[in-house]
């Protein structure tokens, strides 16, 4: 089975979309001034000998803009969940109220906000590098087709222009996501 230029472009675009989806996921885990249940996704708790994400042993939701509530599904888990949140590197200080754990999200300092925007930019740059690597791979595949005489040089020029357009569109989307997240972080 020979691959064609449209196949190469379709595969590349699919992989670029996956890169952006992964970037969105990593952005959702980066803390902003507002509370978000997603920031607890990285915290794992000991559940009968295996480490589980908090979302799999409790109901995680928002009480208000600055408070996350964690409602364990089993009575004995509250202390373990509270300890796991306290010992995480998120700098959060949970408080138990019966079987409900309240996790106040403190406002971030100006210095911390700037630090977080640097993290966002770094993640954005990594996503752009992934997209550019996919562009390079796609162009290499097209060049190989031309070398094997399965496509003409005109096809190569046309496809390289189309591949660049697709790449530019994905890079612009990453830039948009970075700008939006920076705005979210800097909002007091």
Radius of gyration: 23 Å
The CATH architecture term of the largest domain is Orthogonal Bundle
* The CATH C-level class name of the largest domain: Mainly Alpha
Which homologous superfamily in CATH is the superfamily of the largest domain?
Ribosome-recycling factor
Structure description:
The chain is of the alpha+beta class. It folds into 2 domains: about 5-30 and about 110-185, Ribosome-recycling factor (Topoisomerase I, Chain A, domain 4), CATH 1.10.132; about 35-105, Gyrase A, domain 2. The chain is built from 4 helices and 6 strands. The chain has helices at about 5-30, 75-85, 110-145, 155-185, and strands spanning about 45, 50-55, 60-65, 65-70, 95, 100-105. The strands form 2 sheets. A 4-stranded antiparallel beta sheet has the order 3-4-6-5. The protein has a two-stranded antiparallel sheet with strand order 1-2. A hairpin with a 2-residue loop joins strand 1 and strand 2 (about 50-55). The protein is elongated. The model has no long low-confidence stretch (mean pLDDT about 90).
Feature tags:
4-stranded antiparallel sheet, cytoplasm, RRF_sf, alpha+beta, Topoisomerase I, Chain A, domain 4, Gyrase A, domain 2, protein biosynthesis, 188 residues, Ribosome_recyc_fac, Ribosome-recycling factor, 15% strand
Tell me the layout of helices and strands.
Elements: H1 5-28, E1 44-47, E2 50-53, E3 58-64, E4 67-72, H2 77-87, E5 95-97, E6 100-104, H3 110-147, H4 153-186
Antiparallel strand pairs: 1-2, 3-4, 4-6, 5-6
